[in-house]
Design goal:
It is built from ten helices and five strands, in the order H-H-H-H-H-H-H-H-E-H-E-E-H-E-E. The protein is α+β, with helices and mostly antiparallel strands. Among the domains are: 121 residues, no CATH class; 123 residues, 2-Layer Sandwich (Heat Shock Protein 90). A five-stranded mixed β-sheet has the order 1-2-3-5-4, with helices on one face. The chain is rod-shaped, with a radius of gyration of 42 Å.
């Protein structure tokens, strides 16, 4: 079954084919009757001008707004000359009427069509009887009707094409909204799991630490280690509660509600706290560690990813590096943030563990890059979310 666009294309091509056929029929008659050279040259000029304008238009090249009117006028003048020389060319009036209705404004259609019909009748009517008048008149009316039917069909095709594009856009938007709702629901489910398991366990550690603190004497050496355990558990409990709060808020926003998200301190303050906690954990293990932080504040989500990266880097230093010194640097370079965690320990060797793999995925999720080379954990992050 032919589509509407295919039908429209066939109608457009048929117009040019009709011009070629009628011109060829006229030329054949002229050659048979031994026409003068002037008629043949005029027919050749008509064909050349008509073909040049058609090819120029179909190639999509730019042209001035007045160019189609000038082209139509030249074609019409050449046709008048042909019609005067030979009645065989008079039937080219029908495709010329179609072109006039397509090119000219509506207010000029009737006058120009009437003028073209008058030229035709001036050639066919004298001594031709009623048929010489009725035939060209019906043909002209039919040509006008065909053009307006073509334009109505094209307008309807454009209308349905726009409707199809709007429908596809609505489907994409609905799919995006459904995906966002699914992601928010999954985050809400994870938030509930974290609240019911990890957060409860960390809360129990904090409570047990407070109870143990009361049982230890003032000079007990285990008190410092216990304080590190309590501080670490409290910090992770706060992080778990923040995760629960943020993801519950995201789910509520998708469902049309709004929940307040707790305001976090600037990134340099959060990194300083991570550095002190790393020093305390290392000291509790019987070794000294000095962590220096040089950081600027970053916008979200770069700040959260930078905090995660520094947290993982310092955790690996405490657990594996055996270092005595570490430096954390966070800076801005144009529209990019750079994060470096360096230590003087053993460095990282072997395949990446789950923590680094997860961290790399988090960095790439926001459009950044992460590298691990020996004693340096480095990453670059875009300052604007992608």
């Amino acid at each position: 079954m032919l589509s509407t666009n295919r039908i429209l294309e066939m109608l457009r091509v048929s117009l040019h084919v009709l011009v070629a056929v009628l011109l060829a029929v006229g030329l054949a008659g002229q050659v048979r009757d031994g026409a003068p050279l002037a008629a043949l040259l005029l027919a050749a000029c008509f064909a050349a001008v008509y073909l040049a304008g058609t090819v120029w238009h179909n190639r999509g090249k730019a042209y001035p707004a007045w160019a189609p009117y000038v082209w139509l006028a030249v074609v019409a003048v050449l046709w008048v000359g042909l019609a005067v020389l030979s009645e065989a060319f008079v039937w080219l009036e029908f495709p010329l009427v179609m072109l006039a209705c397509v090119i000219l404004p509506v207010r000029w259609e009737l006058p120009v069509t009437a003028a073209l019909l008058a030229v035709t009748l001036s050639v066919t009517a004298p001594g031709g009887g009623p048929g010489a008048v009725v035939g060209p008149t019906i043909g002209t009316v039919l040509a006008v009707f065909i053009v307006h039917a073509y334009q109505a069909l094209r307008a309807e095709a454009d209308h349905y094409r726009q409707m199809a594009e709007d429908l596809r856009a609505a489907q994409r938007e609905a799919a995006h909204a459904e995906h966002a709702a699914g992601v928010a629901q999954e985050r809400a489910r994870l938030a509930r799991e974290v609240h019911d398991t990890m957060a409860q366990g960390l809360s129990s550690i904090v409570l047990l630490g407070r109870a143990m603190d009361k049982q230890l004497g003032e000079g007990d050496p285990a008190r410092e280690t216990l304080e590190v355990i309590r501080a670490t558990a409290s910090d992770n409990l706060a992080e778990a509660r923040r995760f629960v709060s943020e993801n519950s808020a995201n789910a509520a926003e998708v469902e049309g509600a709004t929940l307040p998200t707790p305001k976090r301190p600037p990134l340099p303050a959060r990194l300083d706290r991570l550095a002190r906690q790393a020093e305390d954990r290392q000291r509790a293990l019987g070794e000294a560690l000095e962590v220096r932080v040089h950081a600027v504040d970053l916008p979200e989500p770069a700040a959260s990813v930078a905090e995660r990266l520094v947290r993982e880097g310092l955790s690996n230093i405490v657990r594996h590096a055996g270092a005595s010194s570490a430096v954390v640097t966070v800076d801005k370079l144009g529209a990019t943030a750079t994060i470096d965690v360096f230590d003087n320990g053993r460095g990282i060797s072997g395949p990446e563990g789950y923590g680094l793999k997860g961290l790399r995925a988090r960095v790439e999720e926001v459009g950044g890059e992460m590298t691990v080379e020996g004693n340096v954990l480095a990453a670059t992050l875009p300052l604007e979310a992608k």
